[in-house]
Amino acid sequence: KLEEFLHFKQLKTSLKEAILLDYYTAGFCWAKEMNFSLIQLSGFMDLLNFLLENLSDKHMTLGDNLKELGKAMAGIGETDSERSGDLNFFSIEQAKAVIDYLSISLFKHYKLFEYLFHSPREELVISNE
């Protein structure tokens, strides 16, 4: 289902698509294990996508992307509606778990994702076509 949703057409031959599908699937499974509600699950997947788009489309550095995560998570647990962000449906404990997950799944391997998005790769010929 995620393959269809992400509009991946070359999953069998594109390493990039296979890696991204694996990353999104792992994130989805983690969020389900955390017993996130539907809105929390959707917000978490949006956050994953947002951070990956910052890297792939905007060429953000690790530091800049961490700042964007901080802005997105700002105000969680605050009662003042002016200070709460878009992700205020997470509890403080859930927000900490999300940050921990992103630290080990994306930010720890940031250079690999930069390579995936921004380094040219040789295309292997897999048939006579």
From TrEMBL:
Which PANTHER family does its entry note? CILIARY-ASSOCIATED CALCIUM-BINDING COILED-COIL PROTEIN 1, COILED-COIL DOMAIN-CONTAINING PROTEIN 189
InterPro entries noted in UniProt: CLAMP (IPR032727)
Domain of life, per lineage: Eukaryota
Q: What is this protein called?
A: CBCO1 protein
